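Retry 2 of 3 after timeout on previous attempt. Resubmitting structure tokens to design endpoint.
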């Protein structure tokens, strides 16, 4: 058995009302077995890792990731000829090999940026399921992974032609749920509305694609099989449907009426906001994003909707999470810290609150809060270590000194960052 103690750890435990406390964290194999606040704890029998007063927070949880991409702007997921060309390759044996490399590298970047748990919400050909199994068997070191396989929607819905499977009948949609269950997914991802880049009309992002009956059928079939349902939902009309049908997690989100809030509370439904793809498309110059004016305008609506939705969740005590939507243009696999930063600025909460959402709340969203999301006795040793205090300045999360994932230590983790994208994103961050 491996026995370690992390000494002189200035620790934020993940609860939003907590303050930093200096402690010693005792870890056996992958579990935290004790936390002591004494000046000189008895460390006999343990390998001592002296953190010398560095700051420790729970490993970040990223509940909205696609593993197939890098976040480099491309036209692949927005239709057209380049999408067709890429999909031709994806659907070959070679495509399987390429996907395998892409998803493994993406998960690695997430981990190196401090994300110890990832929920993948829509990838190609069960490449996410295969990677999860490799990580769980110890063949690959990666974050804890929960996966949906391909998303499910109706013809013309978000991801049709790329990462979604479609059917236009309720029976057909139920069959797709069973197909994913058989392939070993952890939950079901659906796309009730379109995406902001799909929208063709000014003022109309997130057009409803799956109707109430179709959504209800998927939720019913998934729940019967013991699977939760996450839905891409980018508009008020979309959230009306997800709230009524008991969708478990509403991705991206929109403002809530008191009735919708009541329905979401009744079914313990959560909302997950995603600023990382939306803010760059809203704020960066169209010469860089290559977006048309309708799309820029609609992205602004999505950002405002998410912010109001987040505030409505906080006010109504509805579980709120945040994720990066990695693989979207400018949403890299290594910038969860920016999502925390954007969230804090836009929603207007304390740094501790934002960090608690990125750890404990997100662990609840993913359904793994019994094993991770806080630094407590009995939980997995998923922790990140940094030199500066993140409760003073969230940019402290950008450069980590150490990551502990299920008890394994990674020293001086350095994700591969793209200099051009970082420069653009830094420009936005300073002007929020
Ligand atoms: Zn997404």
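Retry 2 succeeded. Sequence:
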């Amino acid at each position: 058995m491996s026995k370690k103690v992390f000494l002189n750890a200035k620790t934020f435990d993940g609860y939003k009302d907590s303050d930093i406390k200096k402690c010693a964290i005792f870890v056996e194999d992958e579990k935290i077995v004790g936390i002591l606040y004494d000046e000189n704890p008895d460390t006999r029998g343990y390998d001592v890792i002296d953190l010398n007063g560095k700051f420790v927070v729970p490993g970040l949880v990223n509940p909205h990731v696609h593993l197939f991409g890098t976040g480099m702007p491309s036209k692949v997921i927005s239709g057209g000829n380049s999408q067709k060309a890429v999909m031709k390759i994806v659907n070959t044996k070679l495509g399987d090999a390429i996907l395998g490399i892409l998803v493994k590298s993406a998960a690695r970047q997430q981990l190196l940026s401090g994300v110890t748990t990832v929920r993948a919400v829509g990838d190609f050909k069960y490449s996410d399921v295969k990677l999860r199994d490799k990580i769980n068997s110890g063949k690959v070191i990666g974050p804890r992974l929960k996966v949906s396989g391909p998303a499910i929607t109706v013809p013309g819905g978000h991801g049709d032609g790329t990462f979604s499977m479609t059917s236009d009948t309720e029976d057909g949609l139920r069959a797709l749920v069973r197909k994913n269950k058989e392939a070993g997914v952890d939950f079901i991802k659906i796309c009730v509305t379109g995406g902001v880049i799909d929208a063709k009309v000014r003022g109309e992002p997130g057009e409803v694609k799956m109707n109430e009956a179709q959504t209800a059928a998927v939720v019913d079939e998934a729940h019967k099989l013991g699977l939760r349902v996450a839905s891409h939902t980018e508009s008020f009309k979309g959230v009306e449907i997800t709230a009524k049908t008991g969708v478990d997690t509403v991705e991206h989100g929109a403002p809530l009426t008191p009735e919708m809030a009541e329905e979401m509370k009744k079914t313990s439904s959560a909302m997950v906001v995603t600023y990382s793809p939306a803010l760059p498309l809203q704020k960066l110059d169209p010469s860089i994003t290559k977006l048309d004016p309708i799309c820029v305008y609609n992205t602004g609506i999505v950002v405002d909707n998410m912010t109001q939705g987040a505030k409505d969740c906080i006010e109504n005590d509805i579980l709120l999470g945040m994720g990066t939507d990695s693989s979207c243009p400018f949403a890299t696999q290594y910038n969860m810290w920016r999502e925390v930063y954007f969230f804090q600025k836009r929603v207007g909460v304390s740094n501790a609150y934002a960090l608690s959402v990125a750890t404990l709340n997100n662990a609840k969203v993913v359904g793994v809060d019994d094993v991770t999301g806080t630094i407590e006795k009995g939980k997995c040793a998923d922790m990140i270590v940094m030199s500066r205090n993140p409760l003073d300045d969230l940019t402290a999360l950008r450069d980590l000194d150490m990551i502990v994932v299920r008890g394994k230590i990674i020293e001086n983790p350095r994700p591969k960052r793209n200099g051009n994208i970082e420069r653009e994103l830094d420009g936005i961050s300073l002007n929020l």
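Attempt log closed. The chain has a mean pLDDT of 94.
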